[in-house]
Design a protein that fits this description.
The complex is a heterodimer of chains A (138) and B (154). Chain A has 138 residues and is an alpha/beta fold. Chain A has a single domain, classed as Rossmann fold (3-Layer(aba) Sandwich). Chain B has one domain: Rossmann fold, CATH 3.40.50. Chain B has seven helices and four strands; from the N terminus they run βαβααβαβααα. Chain B is globular, with a radius of gyration of 15 Å. The relative contact order of chain B is 0.24. Classes of the chains: A alpha/beta (138), B alpha/beta (154). The interface between A and B is large, with 37 and 36 residues. The complex binds iron/sulfur cluster (2 copies). One iron/sulfur cluster (SF4) sits at the interface of chains B and A.
């Protein structure tokens, strides 16, 4: 059982709907589904290799959520020594929603919220696995 | 037809406090509604990773950063890649530290108060864009800046 809460880091995607879906999914996990078991940090702070955030991330089990194959959250968390327990991709959450009109980088449609909520459920399950000492796929 | 330069807006989009969400939504508002066609953006982590596309962005556009708090991650990251930013705005200065450092919010929780905050920040951002390239006049037909082949602006 991991004593420390699990860090959740969504990417900061601002150009397409995928970034917003990941961001909202993470906020749902932190705000509603697993508030006590999770923590957030700003990706931009990690990217700038801020000493304080580096210390917080060091060796900490982390779940990243990325909006596109550039995988900015996963890559940057690794760079500051975070331990990736699971790396999730918003594009995978779209697989069961082919042709969905999810909205834009500014606003989600009801399809977009549904995809985001399903992703949040997946993240919450990963948080449980991490807390129970699971192996993860990072 | 008047060739109009574009301004790059880099938002920190911080996930840990309300200021980051406000910076993101204010940037989106300017890009989409207040100054569409005159502003462009790129994801901050990608910008700092500094591939060909990002170097094009840094070389081509004067840049305004909008940060959630006084850690100013977007400003610091941008300066690392492209030198001086043209203007650096911070939500904690435009509003106040308490609002900026409040808990992050989902867009499901947007309310009148939050929308006012976002409007105030996007007004400052719009003003900063206009200071760089001038207020758009109705007679000006905007010519989009076309990136070279293979470069896709996000
Ligand atoms: S992973 Fe893709 S969408 Fe997310 S910040 Fe990086 S470039 Fe943007
Ligand atoms: S400037 Fe503040 S809110 Fe924005 S990413 Fe950095 S620490 Fe987070």
């Amino acid at each position: 059982m991991s004593k420390e809460s699990v860090m959740l880091i969504p990417c900061s995607g601002i150009g397409k709907v995928h970034g917003l879906i990941g961001r909202e999914a993470v906020f749902k996990v932190k705000g509603e589904l697993r508030p006590q078991d999770t923590d957030l940090a700003c990706l931009a702070e990690i990217v700038t290799q801020d000493a304080e955030v580096q210390e917080r991330m060091n060796g900490r089990l982390t779940i990243t959520v990325d909006g596109c194959p550039k995988m900015c959250a996963e890559k940057n968390v690794r760079l500051v020594g975070g331990e990736i327990f699971a790396s999730l991709r918003v594009v995978d959450a779209f697989r069961t929603h082919r042709g969905a009109q999810a909205g834009s980088a500014t606003e989600l449609t009801s399809d977009g919220w549904q995809i985001s909520d399903e992703l949040a459920d997946q993240i919450a399950l990963k948080v449980d696995e991490a807390r129970q000492g699971g192996k993860g796929n990072g | 037809m008047v060739e109009v330069k574009k301004v790059g807006i880099i938002s920190c989009s911080g996930e840990e406090c309300a200021g980051g969400g406000i910076s993101r939504l204010a940037a989106r508002h300017v890009l989409e509604s207040a100054r569409p066609g005159r502003t462009v953006t790129i994801c901050l982590p990608l910008f700092l990773a500094g591939g060909e596309e990002e170097r094009y962005f840094a070389r081509t556009f004067p840049t305004i950063t909008i940060d959630g708090c006084d850690k100013r991650c977007a400003m610091r990251a941008t300066e690392k890649l492209s030198g001086q930013v043209t203007q650096a705005l911070t939500v904690s200065e435009l509003l106040d530290s308490e609002s900026a450092l409040a808990a992050p919010f989902s867009q499901r929780q947007l309310n009148g108060e939050r929308e006012k905050q976002i409007a105030k920040v996007s007004a400052a951002l719009t003003e900063a864009v206009d200071e760089i390239i001038g207020k758009p006049a109705a007679k000006d037909l905007l010519t989009p800046t076309t990136p070279p082949a293979g470069i896709r602006l996000l």
